[in-house]
Amino acid sequence: MKKYFLLVLFISIKLYSQKTELFPGELNVQPFTANLLEPKLGFLFHLPENELRLDIGNSVDILQYQLSDYEKLSIGADLFTYTLLRGEKDFHFPVDAVDYMFGINGSYKFVNENKEYGARIRISHISAHFADGHYDGSAGQWRDGLNPRVYSREFIELMPYYKINSIRIYAGLTYLFHVTPDYIGNDSYQLGFDYYAKGIISQTLTPFIAYDFKLVNIDKYSANHSFVAGLKFGKPDSRGVSFYFNFYSGKSIHGEYFDMNKTYSAIGINLDL
Prior knowledge:
Layout: H1 2-19, E1 20-22, E2 41-47, E3 51-66, E4 71-86, E5 95-112, E6 115-130, E7 135-136, E8 141-142, E9 152-164, E10 167-180, E11 187-196, E12 205-217, E13 221-234, E14 240-251, E15 261-272
Antiparallel strand pairs: 1-3, 2-3, 2-15, 3-4, 4-5, 5-6, 6-9, 7-8, 9-10, 10-11, 11-12, 12-13, 13-14, 14-15
């Protein structure tokens, strides 16, 4: 009896280990290209303004589980900072504002030939802060008369998608279950797509285009638009470096400016890890 029990235990462990991968090299669900809150490691130079954004962040899958030949589940974590800097002479870049995001995520993906669908869910915290670059030391006051204010939010985000060939379409729902200031609305909605033109130039040089529409609820609903077009060096669904153009119009991504409108064109570079 003991021998049969050990045999069943050994087979179960073997099957489980074959289906489970710890810290895999690639994400189960790739980031949504034009969505603002995605893992980035790079710069975004606003034109013609004297501003730039520095992103230092990553998402990792801690565990992936193969449900079948076509289906996979994952559990992972996110840790981002996105920082607003100003350019000054002598190659100085004072830090104006910095936002921190961290949380956990899970995803499901089904792939069969040229068709893919799935969803990603995230539970995250974001907090925002002015930095010393926002303080005018000579005048002894905060720049533009904007004093620091408390801003943080905890939210759950669901992002289902459908992909056929190289076009991926997605929708999103975000619910803030805690937010400061408390007059900010709890819900926001998204629609978007991204397209990577695989094989047009080469297997490791891929043009891409993406658009994200987000309806946010501050004191009333307003629209955020993010359009991205660029070129990725590296495999489309893997590591590489991207050079891209970004047009954005809507509420600022930075929490200290959460109720202020922002419109810019920008040139970006991102290391896709």
